[in-house]
Write a structure and sequence with these properties.
alpha+beta, 4-stranded antiparallel sheet, 4 strands, 44% helix, 14% strand
Length: 176
């Protein structure tokens, strides 16, 4: 027996998918996602998605960059090899600001890129949702709503009927 990934339904407009997302989440489905050709304002709230943790990942990486830069320069200038420049003491913190800023930006950038890869579970060259017959239109003019089989309320027949009742077209069970 094939393993179900979930169920996908197609909608004609941004208004239709917004209304469908509200109805699906109000029925108690939680593993729901929308796939649209352009951003739809408020759709994340209709899907009850929380804020992304990516900002916190970037902040933590930036603070790590600041800390590592300061420790590195303290070790190099004040402990390992004391070097007096322009009559200033070996570790004068104002002279460390440019390097500290650059290390903060570098690690924040790495945190943003690799954090986004991790949160989006990338790289994934093929996703089961690509098996839906009309999903290729998502980048052109159609809107899709998917409910994963891991959703506690998922029942393939009942969920398919529900999606059709709220205006979903080409409702199809997608295999993993």
């Amino acid at each position: 027996m094939p393993n179900h990934w979930g169920i996908v339904a197609e909608f004609d407009s941004a208004a239709a998918i917004y209304t469908a997302a509200e109805k699906v989440t109000s029925q108690g489905y939680v593993r729901v996602d929308a796939h649209t050709p352009f951003p739809v304002h408020g759709l994340d709230k209709a899907l009850r998605q929380g804020p992304s943790p990516l900002g916190w990942i970037v902040v933590c990486c930036g603070i790590t960059g600041i800390t590592l830069a300061q420790l590195m320069m303290w070790w190099m200038n004040a402990s390992d090899y004391e070097y007096w420049v322009s009559g200033k003491e070996p570790y004068a913190w104002p002279s460390t600001i440019p390097i500290t800023f650059e290390c903060m930006v570098l690690l924040s950038g790495f945190g943003a890129v690799f954090g986004m890869f991790g949160l989006n579970k990338l790289p994934r060259l093929h996703h089961p949702i690509f098996n839906h017959k009309t999903f290729w239109r998502v980048s052109d003019d159609r809107f899709f709503l998917s409910i994963e089989a891991t959703d506690p309320k998922f029942d393939s027949a009942q969920t398919a009927r529900f999606l059709e009742s709220i205006g979903g077209k080409f409702v199809e069970i997608v295999e993993d």
